[in-house]
Amino acid sequence: xxxxxxxxxxxxELRLRIRREAEALHQEFAGIFGIExxxxxxxxxxxxxRGRARVLDFVPxxxxxxxxxxxxxxxxxxxxxxxxxxxxxxxxxxxxxxxxVAAALTATLSGGKVSVRxxxxxxxxxxxxxxxxxxxxxxxxxxxxxxxxxxDEVVRAADVVITMGCGDACxxxxxxxxxxxxxxxxxxxxxxxxxxxxxxxxxxxxGLLAELGVPATG
Length: 218
Known about the structure:
Elements: H1 8-28, H2 35-49, H3 59-78, E1 87-92, H4 98-109, E2 115-120, H5 129-137, H6 152-157, E3 160-163, E4 177-180, H7 191-212
Parallel strand pairs: 1-2, 1-3, 3-4
Helix pairs in contact: 1-2, 1-3, 2-3, 4-7, 5-7
């Protein structure tokens, strides 16, 4: 999708807000990354997100969150930030359904004792509304989440990488644990089918947590 057309004033305001996000992130990662690295990651995140018309008003917020996630993963992969809990990455094609459900359930059922990320090899514009609806009924709010592109550093930082129908899109690094979950795609499915898919994923997540030695809550 082509970027949304903005007036010069709107474009200037948007870039000013993005600049502020870069400054805030530079302060947060002071002593870990220089301003050049932070600005490069912010620009990459901005370029990957701004073309999605439906989230344009939230671009600065999403850029901040996505860049922060990538910088933290990079710092973990390089050993400049220590890990204090297992890191799990869920990857599917669009990061709009299965991987979002798996990440949300892992974060919830682990009680925050597992760090979770999700991404898509070809991210969609928004999360599947049926998925948002079903997860909301389960008490999990996905309304503030958004599809994120797969990036190298989040794979490097993960202890366990779980693919869900994305084929060979995920890079392979020696020493990491890779799993492939064959889960039906909720895209275009009615709520009752999405609920069944979510239940399947929940069962798999509980098994994963048991393997990680993390008690599941609820």
